[in-house]
Amino acid sequence: MTVDRSLTIFICTRDRPDELSSALASIARGSMAPARVLVSDDSEDGQATEEIARKFGVDYQRGPRRGLGANRNACVEDLNTDLCAFIDDDVIVSSDFVKHASTAPQTQITTGWELNFSTEPARRVFASNASFLGFQKSDTRHGLKSIVINATAIPRKAFSTIRFDELTRYGYEEIDFARHASAAGWTIAHNPDLWVEHHPSAYGRADYNAQLDVSRIYLTRFAYARYDRNPIKSWTYSVVSAVHLLLSAAKSRRPIGETLNVIRRSNAIYRTRIRAEEAS
Hints:
By secondary structure, this protein is of the alpha/beta class. The protein has helices spanning 17-28, 47-56, 68-76, 97-102, 173-183, 208-227, 231-252, 256-279, and strands at residues 2-3, 7-13, 32-33, 36-41, 59-62, 83-88, 91-93, 109-116, 123-126, 129-130, 136-138, 152-155, 188-198. Strands 2, 4, 5, 6, 7, 8, 9, 12 and 13 form a nine-stranded mixed β-sheet that branches. A two-stranded parallel ribbon has the order 1-3.
């Protein structure tokens, strides 16, 4: 098998040894091998994960156990190739994934698409820009400001100024990364040949929808304040998003207390990040 020298694949995992094994097997079946595969493990007990990594002959490290963003950033600290790609542990890469990711230009961020099996039948998921409320559903005719994280090749030099958010456990961190990259002058381009299968695991998704709302509201508000440099838009968004969430909860008969907690959590995280930036 041909071995590429320019691409590292990072797999951030947490207590999903079976899914991780399938992900690593798909890389091993590919038409080309990456320069390196690193498994970064946030599991409570890393023994099973480390054994799988050893079985496939890939590198292993213990993650920081502070959420997905922190785990990805820990990977970046160990990046020594020109390009990298992050895949979740429940992803199966296409046979030519490494071939297309490793030949991506180092002057841009290149994103593809995923075949997502969370629905029946499976659906193709492409990068979509964020609407005003932060949902990824807006068109991209005026340029991409989003990525499909499981099918994206990122140049190492992008990380000189950009990192993944570490204040949320998961959710919307990839579009925050893309918005930050766009604000920093990076172009995001689509490559239809770069794709993966995503088989979302049910494990570790307790409080999933509430966590997504927390991340979406906090990260969208932050994007308006910092990347767009529009504090009025950021403040307006904080009000509109709260009203929208409360009306949505009333319509679906979700407990109002849970919804108010989501709003409080997102506001608290936003204030924490703003204070940290002002203090630095």
